[in-house]
Amino acid sequence: KSNQLNIICISGNSPSKRKEILLPIFEKLASRNPDKIINISIFGADLNLENIQSSNNLKITNFQTNVEDKVLIETYINSHIYISTSSEEGFGIPFLDAILFGCSCICSDIQVYKEIKKKYSKYNQNIYLVNSKDNIINSFYKNLQLQFDNLETINSKKRLQKYIMNYKSIFEEHLNEIK
């Protein structure tokens, strides 16, 4: 078992990303797991860290736009969980990437995520869609805690190989459909 949890969150600053609910979720997770280290990598959104309560076990790294692909890929490879609180999404590519990298995914139950889960869950069974009508902070927290309780150490090389094989399989499926 691992005593460190790595979370990736790809967001943005638009209201539909609902980034204001991320900090309460992360604070609750950190306070209930003081013996664990929680690393959160957030891409594309500025979170006001001044409002976060002092916590020795919670580290948040904000990445701005124009991040090198290598940094993003390494973050996916080393993340246990992908989280998205969006109420709207375009194509959901970061969610699909997280599925194919083998991250547990905890996301809002918006239509695009439902479609991606239906089509690609054969590559990853750890996909949880949170009903936005529930108490969203508690719902996200419960799913995060469940994943946290069952953490395994990540093998980065196997993660990257899995991602490549999953994408290869998807491309082959689409090629067969075209023939």
Detailed description of the structure:
This protein is an alpha/beta fold. Helix content is 42%, strand content 18%. The chain is built from six helices and six strands. The chain has helices spanning 22-32, 69-77, 93-101, 111-120, 136-149, 156-178; strands at residues 4-10, 37-43, 58-63, 81-84, 104-108, 127-130. Strands 3-2-1-4-5-6 form a six-stranded parallel beta sheet, with helices on both faces. Strand 5, helix 4 and strand 6 form a beta-alpha-beta unit. Helix 1 crosses helix 5 (136-149) and helix 3 packs parallel to helix 4. The protein is globular and about 55 Å long. The termini are far apart. The relative contact order is 0.17. The model has no long low-confidence stretch (mean pLDDT 86).
Beta-strand proportion: 15-25%
Number of helices: 6
- Based on Cα principal axes, name the global outline: globular
Q: Could you give the order of the helices and strands?
A: EHEEHEHEHEHH
Biggest sheet strand order reads 3-2-1-4-5-6
Helix content: 40-55%
* SS-based class: alpha/beta
The value of Rg in angstroms is 16 Å
The parts where pLDDT drops under 50 for at least 5 residues are none
- The overall strand count is 6
What is the average of the pLDDT values? 86
Distance between the first and last residues' Cα: 46 Å
Question: Sheet with the most strands?
Answer: 6 strands, parallel
